[in-house]
Amino acid sequence: MTQVLTVVRQSGEATLTDFAPAKLPEGDVIASQATNQHQEAADVGASVGIWESTPGVFRRHLKNREFSHIISGWCTFTPDGGEPVELHPGDAVLFPADCQGVWDVKETLRKTYVLF
């Protein structure tokens, strides 16, 4: 049986285009966001890619579980009913399914992600 790998390449240097405003902004500074290399791995029910956001505050609106590795920038994520967590380059984070909360991106944030 042949196995196919899903690979995100050069995540720190990849060019992201087509930035759009955050879908659920909070406050006056509206973050712009983009993805690159979004790939579906239907055989395992997951998708991977690169995501970047400029500074701003907005709600997390994904229902999926998500594993992310922070490449650059930094932010604070505050899960609803929980304590704020700072995320910096080199950090990895696992969001449980239906994790709601607020992103506060302090410095343009780039991460790789796996949604499953």
UniProtKB/TrEMBL annotation:
At the top level, the lineage of the source is Bacteria
(S)-ureidoglycine aminohydrolase cupin domain: residues covered: 45-113
The record ties this protein, via PANTHER family, to: CYTOPLASMIC PROTEIN, CYTOPLASMIC PROTEIN-RELATED
How is this protein named in the record?
(S)-ureidoglycine aminohydrolase cupin domain-containing protein
